[in-house]
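input
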Amino acid sequence: MNKSSKIYVAGHNGLVGSAIIRKLESKGYQNIVKRTSQELDLRKQAAVEYFFENEKPEYVFLAAAKVGGILANAKNPGEFLYDNVMIQTNIIEASKNFGVKKLLFLGSTCIYPKMAPQPLKEEYLLTGELEPTNEPYAIAKITGIKMCKSYNEQYGTNFISVMPTNLYGPNDNFDLKTSHVLPALLRKVHEAKLNNSPYVEVWGTGHPFREFLHVDDMADACVYLMENYSYKEIGEIINIGTGEEISIKDLVDLIVSVVNYRGDIKFDPLKPDGTPRKLTDIQKLNKLNWKSRISLKKGIEETYEWYIREKKYE
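output
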């Protein structure tokens, strides 16, 4: 990519897409194409084909997706499967048809088997059963990975797939019905502080371990890979993470400290924990000379400041 390249960021208003936009703009990229979901329904093949035929982007960041936590996945499995398969299929097909030079597809570490050895290596893909609570989403993402690989092999495209660990940061989703664990906890603890609630209830036992990556680090890695490495160098998929994990209990304690909440925490062991542990192996990424920079504490502090400033909880 060069600074005048025409770059399409699909999902530019989302957590990842907005971070990629910030990163690209900070590096001087000026020719960035954006479309809201109201302007372009990515689930509609004809609309996507028309857009690509007219705009002819040279590079594509495929960050558009229907995302959510355990509750959202459990209630809407059909939507999570259909919407994600259609969005990514239409964009990957149009990118091939209209000569996109390079595409980056955003997957997720939920593609790995529930009981895969830890840390999660790229070669563990499709070696066991998926976590049931987000299986439709994971199947959609695996479809995208295999589509990129198949197109590269058949059509000679240069489509790469990255697997980020759990992301958080500015523009995250704080809706308690659809959000992931970190923003949900941040909102719950903040509102408990505002309301002087004596305790906060947290789903599960607090025992599972999770890895969290600030979305600005994620965006930095995505742009770095797009600028420097091809599919032939990266292979089918590459993990993006910190290589560090924290228990949900310790995460809650960290959030309580950042928010300065004085009440108690009550875990509900009758609610699902999800996958017991999910840590990415990032040796492949580290060999390409990239490492995360934002610590979890600093990242949560910045996210909380943004959350208060933007009043996304109202």
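quick obs: The domain at 7-171+212-243+279-293 is CATH 3.40.50.720 (Rossmann fold).
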